[in-house]
């Protein structure tokens, strides 16, 4: 299926009209004007950033484990429906352990750590702190994938870690240092997922890896949602919509849009746009939750983004149009351009 996830979903969907409507939809997608691509990228960034806000809204009612279990269960159902339309093959026996590890790191583990951290860390601050993920992934790629990080890459790592430390220190007055450390641990878990995912993409498509990772993640997170049935009954209508959006929309739609955008925009243009997820998370947290981040957190976030830009520039200097599976993209873009984006499936 390659990297053309969105086209495959449409092409295999049973759209009435003797195939004419299906051909029309695909034709419009192939002729997609630049404005439509930019709009899709903006929606992707906005949805991923909004996850931090949705988590904060749901935590008082469901708790960290409940939010993770409910979200991943809904996402598993959504990807089940997508799989019926697009077709997702069963993994081989040799592929199963790797997919289980992906479910444990990038889904269950990441969600549980992030949710627990966001009990005391504002949505915007968490988004800024998560920006360090691609830098950590670039470091892990050395021992796990044999991809060396050059001098400029190590410089960017030092800058990004400094920024993360500044963000964590900004929580001292708010009593959220432990929460900031948990968010940083979530970033490390997700960075490991990015690297391990690259291995899985050598034999499976992005949609297959994501679907099976989500299903395994939902299974692993179930024990942490032991009080979920009772808690769900006490949700207000607004919280129900928040949960539905988090599990059914934010965990699926950005993935499809991102895969579609990568077929129509140079990697050198698409990847930097994802650096705006952190600032967008800050803006949404302020507008929707009234959370005003500390100036020190904003400074640390800016330092983190600077470090990420340095590492990204060290990896690849030539624009790359992604018309092949993600696993085939030249080194330097791989760790940043995963099916779910720059360390964000919040």
Task: Give your account of this protein's structure.
With 346 residues, the protein is mainly α. The protein has one domain (5-328). It contains 15 helices and no strands. The chain has helices at 5-12, 20-30, 34-86, 96-117, 123-130, 133-145, 151-169, 177-200, 206-221, 228-233, 237-250, 253-261, 267-273, 277-289, 295-315. The longest helix has 53 residues, at 34-86. The protein is globular, with a radius of gyration of 19 Å. The two termini are 26 Å apart. 54% of the residues are buried.
Note the topology.
Elements: H1 5-12, H2 20-30, H3 34-86, H4 96-117, H5 123-130, H6 133-145, H7 151-169, H8 177-200, H9 206-221, H10 228-233, H11 237-250, H12 253-261, H13 267-273, H14 277-289, H15 295-315
Helix pairs in contact: 3-4, 3-5, 3-9, 3-11, 3-12, 3-14, 4-8, 4-9, 5-8, 5-14, 6-7, 6-8, 7-8, 7-15
| Residue share in helix | over 70%
Encode the helix/strand succession as letters.
HHHHHHHHHHHHHHH
- Largest sheet, strands/sense/barrel: none
Described by the principal axes of the CA atoms, the overall outline is globular
Q: In DSSP terms, counting alpha (H) and pi (I) runs of 4 or more, how many helices?
A: 15
Q: Percent of residues in beta strands?
A: under 5%
Radius of gyration: 19 Å
Mean pLDDT figure: 79
| Number of structural domains | 1
- Structural class, please? mainly alpha
Number of strands: 0
Distance between the termini: 26 Å
Enumerate the spans where pLDDT stays under 50 for 5 or more consecutive residues: 1-7, 9-18, 316-345
């Amino acid at each position: 299926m390659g990297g053309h996830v969105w086209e495959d979903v449409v092409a295999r969907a049973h759209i009435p009209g003797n195939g004419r409507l299906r051909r029309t939809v695909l034709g419009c997608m192939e002729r997609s004007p630049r404005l439509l691509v930019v709009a899709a990228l903006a929606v992707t960034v906005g949805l991923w950033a909004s996850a931090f806000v949705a988590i904060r809204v749901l935590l008082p009612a469901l708790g960290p484990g409940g939010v993770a279990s409910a979200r991943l269960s809904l996402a598993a159902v959504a990807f089940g429906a997508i799989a019926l339309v697009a077709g997702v093959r069963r993994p081989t026996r040799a592929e199963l352990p790797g997919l289980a590890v992906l479910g444990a790191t990038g889904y269950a583990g990441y969600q549980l750590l992030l949710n627990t951290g966001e009990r005391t860390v504002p949505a915007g601050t968490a988004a800024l702190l998560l920006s360090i993920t691609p830098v950590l992934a670039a470091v892990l790629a050395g021992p796990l994938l044999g991809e060396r990080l050059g001098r400029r890459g190590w410089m960017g790592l030092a800058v990004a870690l400094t920024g993360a430390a500044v963000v964590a220190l900004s929580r001292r007055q708010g009593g959220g240092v432990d929460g900031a450390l948990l968010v940083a641990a979530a970033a490390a878990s997700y960075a490991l997922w990015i690297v391990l995912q690259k291995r899985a993409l050598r034999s499976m498509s992005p949609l297959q890896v994501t679907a099976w990772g989500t299903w395994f993640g939902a299974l692993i997170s179930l024990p942490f949602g032991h009080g979920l049935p009772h808690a769900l009954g006490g949700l207000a209508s607004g919280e129900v919509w928040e949960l539905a959006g988090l599990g059914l929309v934010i965990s699926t739609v950005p993935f499809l849009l991102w895969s579609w955008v990568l077929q129509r925009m140079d990697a050198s243009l698409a990847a930097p746009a994802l650096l705006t997820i952190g600032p967008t998370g800050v803006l949404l947290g302020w507008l929707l939750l009234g959370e005003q981040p500390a100036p020190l957190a904003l400074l640390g976030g800016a330092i983190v983004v600077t470090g990420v830009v340095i590492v990204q520039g060290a990896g690849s200097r030539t624009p790359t149009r992604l018309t092949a599976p993600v696993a085939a993209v030249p080194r330097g873009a791989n760790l940043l351009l995963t099916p779910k984006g720059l360390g964000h499936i919040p």
